[in-house]
């Protein structure tokens, strides 16, 4: 079932972007106006704070919820899989795996309801939510299977540890976007965290090179994660002064 969910996540990702996975922005990278959804821009944590126990207890089955409501539930759950401080975050792949069936069903419902709702009434804001949630899901599914692959005992541990660290950092950065995939400088420690990553990116690159890994597939794996980090950090760093 987990493999099926992974394939579904990749399919959803293909709807998000034809290029590398990244938060959706306007063509010039500027912040999109997303204030039209319910007149709010609340995060999942704000919407569900104090009510977490009722997210999945059936009091409002996701099959009868709106696309917007289901996306908020999905993003709230996905963000809960990232743990630890920003200097050493961890992706809880075990929790992701345990919730894979639920996530697969939830995102299948999101896709169905999104198509129905936007056919009746197109919404740029709902589309932004839809694409961003799909990206988080796809990246975490990728991270899960990347982690399984990197567990190969023939791979040098220092090398795989560096790749896994970059994956965790990449996922952690989703915290600094709102539900629409727009950089949110109001998030606690935004400037501190983004500035840290800006300084550390070249350091991590040098550290990996110093390991002297010759296998091209491991080099490419690290370079891919580093590239995605550079893209995200580059976008986030534009808005430090706007906090």
Describe the structure concisely for a colleague.
With 243 residues, this protein is an all-alpha fold.
Overall residue-averaged pLDDT value = 80
| Overall structural domain count | 1
Look at the helices and sheets and give the structural class.
Answer: mainly alpha
Low-confidence stretches: 13-60
**Helix/strand order, N-terminal first:** HHHEEHHHHHH
Radius of gyration: 18 Å
- In helices, the fraction of residues equals 55-70%
The counted number of beta strands is 2
Arrangement of strands in the largest sheet: 1-2
Q: Termini distance?
A: 43 Å
Major sheet details: 2 strands, antiparallel
**Basic shape:** globular
Strand portion, in percent? under 5%
SS element count, helices = 9
Q: What would you say this structure looks like, in words?
A:
It is a single chain. The protein is mainly α. It has nine helices and two strands. The protein has a two-stranded antiparallel ribbon with strand order 1-2. The radius of gyration is 18 Å and the shape is globular. Residues 13-60 have low confidence and may be disordered.
SSE layout and pairing:
Elements: H1 2-16, H2 44-48, H3 67-79, E1 82-83, E2 90-91, H4 93-98, H5 100-120, H6 124-150, H7 157-172, H8 190-210, H9 216-237
Helix pairs in contact: 1-5, 1-6, 3-5, 3-6, 5-6, 6-7, 7-9, 8-9
């Amino acid at each position: 079932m987990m493999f099926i969910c992974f394939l579904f996540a990749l399919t959803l990702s293909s709807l998000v972007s034809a290029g590398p996975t990244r938060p959706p922005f306007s063509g010039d990278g500027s912040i999109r106006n997303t204030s039209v959804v319910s007149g709010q821009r609340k995060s999942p944590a704000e919407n569900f704070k104090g009510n977490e126990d009722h997210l999945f207890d059936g009091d409002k089955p996701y099959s009868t919820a709106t696309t917007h409501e289901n996306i908020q539930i999905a993003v709230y759950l996905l963000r809960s899989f990232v743990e630890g401080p920003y200097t050493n975050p961890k992706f809880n792949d075990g929790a992701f795996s345990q919730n894979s069936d639920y996530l697969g069903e939830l995102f299948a419902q999101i896709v169905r309801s999104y198509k129905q709702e936007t056919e009746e009434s197109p919404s740029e804001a709902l589309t932004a939510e839809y694409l961003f949630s799909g990206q988080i899901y796809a990246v975490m599914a990728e991270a899960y299977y990347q982690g399984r692959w990197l567990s190969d005992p023939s791979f040098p541990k220092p090398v795989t540890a560096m790749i896994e660290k970059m994956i965790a950092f990449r996922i952690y950065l989703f915290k600094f976007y709102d539900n629409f995939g727009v950089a949110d400088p109001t998030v606690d420690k935004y400037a501190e965290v983004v500035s840290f990553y800006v300084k550390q990116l070249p350091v991590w690159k040098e550290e990996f090179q110093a390991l002297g890994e010759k296998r091209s597939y491991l080099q490419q794996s690290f370079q891919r994660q580093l590239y995605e980090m550079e893209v995200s950090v580059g976008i986030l760093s534009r808005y430090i002064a706007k906090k």
